Amino acid sequence: MLKEIITAIQAYFQAHRFINKHGLWKWIIIPGLIYCILFVTGIWLFLKSSNYAIELVLLKTGLKEWIQKMENSWLNWLVIFAGFILYLVLLLFYFSLFKYLFLIVGSPLFAYLSEKTEAIMEGTDYPFSFSQLIKDILRGIRIAFRNMLWQTVYALSIFILSFIPLVGWITPLIALMVECYYFGFSMLDYSSERHKLSPSQSIAFIGQHRGLAIGNGMVFYLMHLLPIVGWLLAPSYAVIAATISLYGENGGKVDN
Question: How many structural domains compose the chain?
Fold first, then answer.
C-alpha cells in the first residue's frame, strides 16, 4: 500500500507537467473557482456552528457543570485538549459533507477532465455523448451518496471514540485517513466508470488499490494549506493525478 501512496503523490507532480504541456488550464480554473466559493462558504458556516455544537454536547452530557465544580487544573487541561480534538473531528466531518456537495456539482467537469486526460495519454479520443454524460453524472451522484453514507457511519463512530481518554487523541488522524480514502475513491471512480466497471466492481477494484485513493486524498488536503492558490488548483489536480496514477499503476488497464 505504501508503494501506491507514493505513486499517487508523484502523480500530482506529473499532473502539473501534464497540464502545462497540453494547455489544460481552462479546465483547472473553472471548477477551481466553484470550489473556492463553496469552500469559503463551508468554512464560514462551520465557524458559525461548531462552537455551538460543542457547547451543546457539554451541556447535554453534564460535563460542563461537572467541570465547573471540579478545581483541578490538570483535569481542566485534559478537557480543553479533548475539546480541541472534538473540534478537529467536527471540522473533518463538516468538510466531508461539503466535499460531497462539490463532487455532485462538479461531476460533469471531473468526468470530462478524467476522460480527456486518459485520451491524451493513449493518443486516442473519446467521442462526446450526451447520454453518456448523463450516465456519468447519475453514477457520480450515486457513488457520492453511497460514500457519504458509509463515511457518516465511520465519522459517528470516530466522534464517539473522541470522548475516550488517550484513545480519543488519535481520532483526528483516523478521521483524516478515512476522509482521504473516500475523496481519492471518488477521483479514481471516474476511470472505473469509463472502463465499464459497475459500482460494485469499482468498489472492489479501488479497495484493492486503496493506497492510490489515500495518497490522492492526502495531497489534495495538503494543498489546502496554501490559501486561494491551493484551493483553486486542488480539485482538478486531484482528478488528473488520479487518472495518471491509475493508468501508470495498471498499464492503462482498469478491470476487476
Answer: 1
Residue 153 lies inside a defined structural domain of this protein? yes
Beta carbons of 34 and 234 less than 8 angstroms apart: no
Q: Within 10 A of 3 (CB to CB), how many other CB atoms are there?
A: 11
Which secondary-structure segment (H or E) carries 15?
A: helix 2-22
Q: pTM of this prediction?
A: 0.78
* pLDDT less than 50: residues of the chain: 252
Domain around 234? 2-47+93-250
Any domain includes 84? no
Whether 65 maps to a domain, the answer reads no
Residue 76 placed within a domain: no
* Listed residue (240, 220, 191) closest to 19, CA to CA: 240
**Which of 88, 252, 249 is CA-nearest to residue 184?**
249
Sequence-distant (≥ 6) Cβ neighbours of residue 239 within 8 angstroms: 110, 113, 114, 117, 187, 190
**CA atoms within a 13 Å half-sphere pointing along the CA-CB vector of 137:** 10
Which tens digit of pLDDT belongs to each residue from 37-81?
878 887 777 777 666 666 666 666 665 566 556 555 566 666 666
Quote the pLDDT of residue 172. 74
- In 3-state terms, what secondary structure has residue 198? coil
Is residue 115 within 8 A of residue 36, CB to CB? The reply is: no
